[in-house]
Design goal:
By secondary structure, this protein is an alpha+beta fold. The chain has 23 helices and 26 strands. About 2% of the residues have low confidence. The protein binds 5'-O-[(L-methionyl)-sulphamoyl]adenosine.
């Protein structure tokens, strides 16, 4: 029996679980379940990353202590994972003492290796990434390339990790171990990054307190990534306990992560381990990112998918199936709500659900509600042999795909058998055979074959859809007893479904979503963010309320206007009365700009004009629009266009 250790990233507690987190966790869960089915001794770890400035600030914004925020959000993660059928073996929190002790032990090991020194860091820092950037890495406008937000200039004493020392060893390791970083595109990315030169890494901070103190120097807290990465070993009880979990499970088989945190896992973590003299994980697998209906998932777009809600609406197994099937692991995917419903209706309801439904119905009718006996392959006809051969190929290929961390391909392959079984029923047509008294034995054989195909399918889909796999098995007579044990196997011999089991007709496995229900769900999911709490953790509600939609913005009719006349307004020192040309009409407006501009300075200028403002009377003068200008109480500058030739009346967007 071999061991299999798989991890997800530990999630920051400034956000409640959304589809992105659920995705990684579902995939890790299905891989863990597959390996359990194959008899491996599995350890599946997930957890939460609770330290660092980002969390400290999120807590401050909510007037909470960081640990209160963490406790609250951690329960949300735990609940979500239960809801989504996640069966992790441990849940690590970085605020636990068992974790802190191992972080200290690792730091000490690296220090003893001569790899930690005190220096000073002077650089540009993005708090959201908890990451320094060089000038050249920043996006246009000096913004963080990931978050498009301003970075901060930080100068502080800092401990450094001599990461540069491990550049060559890391490159060698990448070259010698093709599976170390997957998929290949990510491996090449990291290889190029390391080749371009590894610098030493700043691994402590003095500007805030929310973290694990540096051993023997409590003015510093340990850099949150050094803290976080260590979770993969602290959950095993630390590397000093070789006979416990660490001895059984380390090195990890798969660190499953999103591509956003590849560098931390494929560069920082392995070099830290090298420094501490510990073995490196076997595979770091970086999956792609989901967009939602074609758009980046983002709180301000209010399109963050709440996996629990979707699971409640369509069933968690359908959601698990969709995310596993929709895109090959490693590629980016789009979570289109329509696409989800389409797959449910076609692949789940139509292909698999229908297969079960018609199979059990026929078996009940033609075989007195019992699994009929198998005649065995000797008596099999050509169509039977074809089905069995295909089933064996599917079983072996699906196993290879699961093994190779390619669940979408595993499912694709399994559906070959689902479709073949449906076709087998069509071509053997037991509903015709049953009318011929000479063919009764043949009917039994056919029924036994398609029920057996269903049994095989139940085992192969179980890692992805454990509940539905069990529902299916109940219908073909296998009962509910010892579900875990039932699913801890992989198809082996054709014909193992025991004759005489009592079939149990049940509800459709996946009810079809009809047009009315579809419209209802689509409306609910697209408007759902309004009442969704995940939008509220980081940003206070007021900020959200200030946002306007693009439709609201589009209601403004902004135009280029040329000032063709300007005069003082009698009795009002701050006002000027202007006439502006909008191309096909001239309007009169009153503008509060007299303190900054004289009438003669204005004629001939082009400005931006709000053309659909309700007319009003100001000091007795009719004003039919508004020109845009900058300034709080007093205007200090007029809006302008950087091309003087733009025609009056041109739309401004
Ligand atoms: N705390 C760090 C990880 C430390 S691991 C030692 C962190 N946490 S996070 O809460 O931001 O989670 C990041 C992970 O969430 C990504 O790596 C990915 O697994 C998942 N996803 C978040 N948004 C995602 C998408 N839009 N699409 C797919 N997965 C995404 O980073």
């Amino acid at each position: 029996m071999s061991s299999f250790y798989i991890t997800t990233p530990i999630y920051y507690v400034n956000d409640v679980p959304h589809l992105g987190h659920a995705y990684t966790t579902i995939i890790a869960d299905l891989l863990a379940r597959y390996h359990r089915a194959r008899g491996d001794e599995v350890f599946f770890l997930t957890g939460t990353d609770e330290h660092g400035q980002k969390i400290e600030r999120a807590a401050q914004a909510r007037k909470e202590r960081p640990i209160e925020l963490a406790n609250r959000v951690v329960s949300r993660f735990r609940e979500s994972w239960t809801n989504l059928g996640i069966r992790n073996d441990d849940f690590i929190r970085t605020t636990e003492a068992r974790h802190r002790d191992v972080v200290h032990a690792l730091w000490r090991r690296m220090n003893e290796a001569g790899d930690i020194y005190l220096g000073e860091y002077d650089g540009l820092y993005c708090v959201s990434c908890e990451e320094y950037f060089t000038e050249s890495q920043l996006a246009e406008g000096g913004l963080c390339p990931i978050h498009n937000a301003p970075v901060e200039h930080l100068k502080q004493p800092s401990y450094f990790f001599r990461m540069s020392r491990y550049q060559d060893r890391l490159l060698q390791h990448i070259a010698d171990n093709p599976d170390f970083i997957r998929p290949e595109i990510r491996r090449n990315e990291i290889r190029r990054f390391v080749e371009s030169g590894l610098r030493d890494l700043s691994i402590s901070r003095t500007t805030f307190k929310w973290g694990i103190p540096v051993p023997d120097d409590p003015d510093h807290v340990i850099y949150v990534w050094v803290d976080a990465l260590t979770n993969y070993i602290s959950a095993l009880g630390g590397f000093d306990a070789p006979h416990g979990r660490y001895g059984t499970y380390w090195p990890a088989d798969v660190h499953l992560i999103g591509k956003d945190i590849l560098r931390h896992h494929a560069v920082y973590w392995p070099t830290m381990l090298m420094s501490a003299g510990l073995p490196l994980p076997r595979t770091i697998f970086a999956h792609g990112w989901w967009t939602i209906n074609g758009q980046k998932m983002s709180k301000s777009l209010r399109n963050v998918v709440e996996p629990n809600m979707v699971a409640a609406d369509v069933g968690r197994d359908a959601l698990r199936y969709f995310v596993a099937r929709e895109t090959p692991l490693g590629s980016d995917g789009d979570f289109a709500h329509e696409g989800l419903i389409h797959r449910i209706n076609s692949e789940l309801a139509n292909d698999l659900g229908n297969l079960l439904n018609r199979s059990v119905a026929m078996a009940v009718k033609y075989c007195e509600g019992q699994v009929p006996p198998f005649a065995g392959e000797i008596e099999a006809e050509e169509v039977d042999r074809e089905l069995i051969t295909l089933a064996r190929r599917v079983r072996d290929e699906a196993a290879e795909h699961y093994q190779a961390v390619a669940p979408s391909r595993a499912l694709e392959t399994i559906w070959e058998l689902v479709r073949a079984a449906n076709k087998y029923i069509d071509s053997t047509a037991p509903y015709k055979l049953i009318k011929d008294p000479a063919k009764q034995r043949r009917v039994q054989e056919v029924v036994a074959n398609f029920l057996e195909a269903l049994r095989w399918i139940s085992l192969m889909v179980a890692p992805v859809m454990p509940d539905k796999a069990m529902e299916l098995r109940v219908q073909i007579g296998l009962g509910t007893a010892d579900a875990e044990g039932q699913l801890r196997q992989w198809p082996d011999r054709w014909g193992d479904l025991a004759a005489g089991l009592q079939l149990q007709r049940g509800e459709p496995l996946f009810p079809r979503i009809d047009d009315d229900r579809k419209a209802e769900l689509l409306a609910k999911w697209s408007g759902k963010a309004d009442e969704q709490e995940s939008t509220k953790v980081e940003e206070p509600k007021v900020d959200e309320d200030k946002l306007i939609s693009f439709e609201e913005f589009s209601r403004l009719d902004l135009r280029v206007a040329e000032v063709v006349g300007a005069a003082a307004v009698e009795g009002a020192d701050r006002l000027l009365q202007l006439r502006v040309n909008l191309g096909d009409e001239v309007r009169q407006v009153v503008a509060g700009i007299a303190e900054a501009y004289k009438p003669e300075q204005l004629v001939g200028r082009k400005v931006i004009f709000v053309a659909n403002l309700k007319p009003a009377k100001i000091r007795g003068v009719r004003s039919e629009g508004m020109i845009l200008a900058a300034g709080e109480k007093k205007v200090v500058a007029l809006s302008a266009l950087d091309n003087p030739d733009v025609a009056p009346g041109t739309k401004v967007r």
